[in-house]
């Protein structure tokens, strides 16, 4: 059930997904959501319930908040249930402000386009 229609904390225990969101500044906050909540739902809820300790990082719109899970941006329609998060445990995700997202396969495409190019550097 989308969080906009049911307040946080009202879900059945077995259906709760616990997230610890980390900002670039290192500040964290714990939230509870439903497995049916999408990345867009989460961004809107966080924006509407912006933690007091995060005031310096406040953004102008929920549409620029992006979640990063296991090094990948979550696109707006991805639900927490689709991620198969471990039940009963808190999952850590990063929350960043970014206008646009990379295409889902852009990293793989960039790797396929490389032939003999090298991006190595030597530190002395």
TrEMBL record:
<protein>
    <recommendedName>
        <fullName>Ubiquitin-like protein</fullName>
    </recommendedName>
</protein>
<dbReference type="InterPro" id="IPR047977">
    <property type="entry name" value="UBL3_Ubl_met"/>
</dbReference>
<keyword id="KW-0564">Palmitate</keyword>
<dbReference type="GO" id="GO:0005886">
    <property type="term" value="C:plasma membrane"/>
</dbReference>
<dbReference type="InterPro" id="IPR029071">
    <property type="entry name" value="Ubiquitin-like_domsf"/>
</dbReference>
<feature type="domain" description="Ubiquitin-like">
    <location>
        <begin position="17"/>
        <end position="95"/>
    </location>
</feature>
<feature type="region of interest" description="Disordered">
    <location>
        <begin position="100"/>
        <end position="119"/>
    </location>
</feature>
<dbReference type="InterPro" id="IPR039540">
    <property type="entry name" value="UBL3-like_ubiquitin_dom"/>
</dbReference>
<dbReference type="InterPro" id="IPR017000">
    <property type="entry name" value="MUB"/>
</dbReference>
<keyword id="KW-0472">Membrane</keyword>
<dbReference type="InterPro" id="IPR000626">
    <property type="entry name" value="Ubiquitin-like_dom"/>
</dbReference>
<dbReference type="Pfam" id="PF13881">
    <property type="entry name" value="Rad60-SLD_2"/>
</dbReference>
<keyword id="KW-1003">Cell membrane</keyword>
<dbReference type="InterPro" id="IPR040015">
    <property type="entry name" value="UBL3-like"/>
</dbReference>
<keyword id="KW-0636">Prenylation</keyword>
<keyword id="KW-0488">Methylation</keyword>
<keyword id="KW-0449">Lipoprotein</keyword>
